[in-house]
Prior knowledge:
The structure holds two protein chains of two kinds. By secondary structure, chain A is of the alpha/beta class. Chain A is 47% helix and 14% strand.
Amino acid sequence: LSGKKAVDSSLLEELEEILFTSDIGVEITEQLIERLQRRVDRKSLDNPEQLKTILKEEMISFLEAGQELSAVNEIPDKARNIVEVIMFVGVNGVGKTTTIAKVAHYFQAQGQKVMLVAADTFRAAAIEQLQIWGDRVGAEVISQKRGADPAAVVFDAISAAKARKMDKLFIDTAGRLHTKLNLMEELKKVQRVANQQLSGAPHQVTLVLDATTGQNAIAQAQVFAQSLGVTDIILTKLDGTAKGGVVIAISQRLHIPISFICTGEGLEDFEIFNPREFVEAIFD
Amino acid sequence: ILTEKLSKIFQGLKGKGRLSKENIQEALKQIRLALLEADVNYKVVKNLLEEIRQRALGQEVLESLTPGQQVIKIVSEELTRLMGEGRRELNLSGKEPLSLLLVGLQGSGKTTTAGKLANYLRKNGYHPYLVPVDIQRPAAIEQLWKIGEEISIPVHPSDSTDRPEDICLKAKEAALRIGADILVIDTAGRLHIDEQLMEELLRIKDVIHPTESLLVADAMTGQDAVNLAVKFNQVLDITGIILSKMEGDARGGAALSIMAVTNKPIKFVGIGEKLDELEPFYPDRMSSRILG
Ligand SMILES: Nc1nc2c(ncn2[C@@H]2O[C@H](COP(=O)(O)OP(=O)(O)OP(=O)(O)O)[C@@H](O)[C@H]2O)c(=O)[nH]1
Ligand SMILES: Nc1nc2c(ncn2[C@@H]2O[C@H](COP(=O)(O)OP(=O)(O)OP(=O)(O)O)[C@@H](O)[C@H]2O)c(=O)[nH]1
Ligand SMILES: [Mg+2]
Ligand SMILES: [Mg+2]
């Protein structure tokens, strides 16, 4: 009878290293290792492949718990002919503007009529950047002058989208740190004004997270969710070496589904989120 | 926070003086968790903990009347030592016009930081010239143009059909003509694993001979900080780092990781989106932030 009851410690350290260096974080790593210890049977204690298989299954189940609320694959309520309004939010530089272009391109390829709103009225050349993407994608961009009230631009855009019977309206907002309360208030105001112009808008609030971000992504998700209600997350820059493991903690704690992932700077670098592939990539 | 946790571990020791092995083990465990939660890289934490462990088992703690305090002091000293190395002022000596080259991953804050640096240089009596070399991102050149307008600093009219190296050469000639003494060069964001784009940076460096090659990194970067830092340093032999978005609540462990693997100094930190929101890097402030 093997006297061993626990996984060999150097093997455990190897697995921990994979988890930690993927930005999975202390809390989730501890939970995963504990589940592993409970689930593994004696004959597999020394079998690294079997241990990895168990770990992967646990990680996928954490992610799938969050995915249950995913509205991405819902068919929009076309019978009512209401434009679906989706607001993109997130901290500075994560890829919101570029991601909007990809999402617009994705839905256009499915035959939907999409329109964009340049509601980042703060940053230098933010409007121009979105306009160039709008040209490339073939989607109209509603904008005003730099310095305009973002809520006012959104108000105009929603009435234009309604008038032109658009299927989807994507709102690009300025990057902002979640610690800046006045900037979070600005977003809340955009949300209120959108709802005034079209009851129920914005129907989706998509939080864009950068895969190179560490544990701070959890704070970002918490504050944006608390402040606005986040319907889904898009994870960008997975074409680098960062694994984005922090989304497992976000999924487990906040149950926000991940809708898409981005893997590059081009319009086609865009995929529907697949928990199994995501977890496999962590162990690659 | 860590200092409270460590105080708890050692509080039963008043009058006893000596630390037990268990106390030390527990303290090291708490330090490790605090550093990992602060995004310090796993391997960097491992090495750092070994340094701390050696010292914690040594005479200075053994003979101390307040061993707990001594351990806390060791941790903060080791962190500050790791982050305090290297010359932190900009190297601005050499034949004019000098060049400062900004590089880094996509979205890390290079373009904004270029503006901040130019603003800082002008306040210190220099005549900077901003050079946009990002011909790939939509409206990147316009972005730097608008930034230049805001702070009244001339921006090179880069031609997006030129190669980046040629833009830099033309900018150098233009700088001489207008009497500018420092070029601040903003490059396109790129992945450290993109060999072609990393080679492009090397070509730019070989053509312009910058006195500073500065890696602009995001303060909220996680474990990946070591990968990108090692690669950029390998290819360019960077002279320093600028950590952006530091005014947020990211613990900033990336700062420690990057300095540990490159031995290069963090010269500045970005503390906001405005063009005057740049300040020097203070290692002791950073280490207490990382320790939480
Ligand atoms: N490699 C890579 N780069 C990306 C990806 N998504 C966006 N980027 C790049 O990241 C940089 C920032 O993208 P933006 O779309 O401007 O980000 P943003 O969130 O709108 O930025 P702000 O509006 O300034 O807050 C650009 O250089 C993009 O090309 C991705 O999936 N992979
Ligand atoms: N909060 C905050 N935002 C910053 C800071 N520095 C830059 N930013 C913002 O970060 C975002 C990205 O900045 P950019 O200067 O466009 O970044 P970049 O590295 O040039 O991006 P690419 O050229 O696409 O690689 C913008 O929204 C900036 O305003 C900072 O110190 N604090
Ligand atoms: Mg943007
Ligand atoms: Mg840029």
